[in-house]
Predict the structure.
Amino acid sequence: MIKSRSIVYILIAPLLSVAAIALYKHIPDRTLQVMSSPDSRRSLYADSRDGGESEAYWLDQTNGLWACKLREGLQYPFCGISAVPGTSHSKGLDLTQYDSLNLHITYTGPAKKIRLYLRDYDATMADKLDGYDGKFMSVQLNTSDLNRPINIELNEFTVADWWIDHYELTREQSRPEFANVVNIGLDFANPYPFGDHEIRIINVELVGKRISAEQWYLGIITLWLLGAFAVALMRWLALYRAGQENLNRIDELNELNQKLKTRSAELENLSKSDPLTGTLNRLGFTAEIDRFLNSTASTKTASLALFSIDQFKNAKEHLGLANTDDFLQNITDVIQSHARADHVLARWDSDEFVMLCPDTDTASAFVMVENIRKILSAWIQEKSKRSSVTICASICELGVEGGFITAFQDLDTAIAKAKSIGGNCTIMG
């Protein structure tokens, strides 16, 4: 009976999988109308409200037909249409579940391009930026492509350069975001196409998959695994019921042996790792140094770096035990995030971190370590609120002849010198 079920599974499961794969493209998309209907809180605007000469007015509001008379006058003349898809200027829609936007508008007029824009409101940025009304993201559309439905991927939207320059944003803050879109609209960008324009909004809707292809295929694979597990389980039960006690005993011994191997490996890893930061400890680091010096890589230039926290005792008393642990874990994260992938970091002492930098001369290591040290010192002072808590560092070359002990003595001597002059610096060992 079990064998026949297995055969049925083997024959039918592939057919069902192929059918499921083919079915994916027929799953209806998730859609959302954001500007097409009269109740979408859309409004017209023009520079006439600021003393300009441009006008925007409805020709047929029910059917989304409006006109714009763009005239010279102000330095930055404008007219356009906007809609508020959310409930307020600060509470909008999360569009991260959507991939693209279907746009169907008709246009007549002299413009070669028309701008479609979104504004995403971030409350944290609003607290920092005076007059902030949402990140301005846009895409320029050729009017020759209009008068028919087009699809625009959300990743085509870019943050406007003038907006970035106006608020002096960082590179991270200049990335497009769609988690809280509070405004969507159409207007004209520079060079301004002065003249009369007539636009009809037929359809503006967001489109996204209800389930991603990755999730769908992962579900198919999961069902395969569950089916294979079920067949294997039934077979195992049949063998068990047949009384194959010897095989069961072998399985038990194998399982015990595997657990012992796993436990042995875990203990070995634990013996070489710092439990707080997850980096290597002294034992693990010295083992890594020995492996490096015994390898062909040791013939290349390599450097050692040592980071030490100045006034660590004061920081611990200020932060407390739990926060001190978080403090050290975050220091580890900062160092690793600014070091190369092949660099090896270890916690050498309670307030010291040592790092092996393969294929790195001391000059290059000094630039990298000094940069990390400055970042750490700034971050530490921000978190600890103690100006005396900083980072000092030292660098030296790791050579085959002198070995690790000689190199580390040079590092330690340099660190002592750095602390003697007040810390918060990097010294060559």
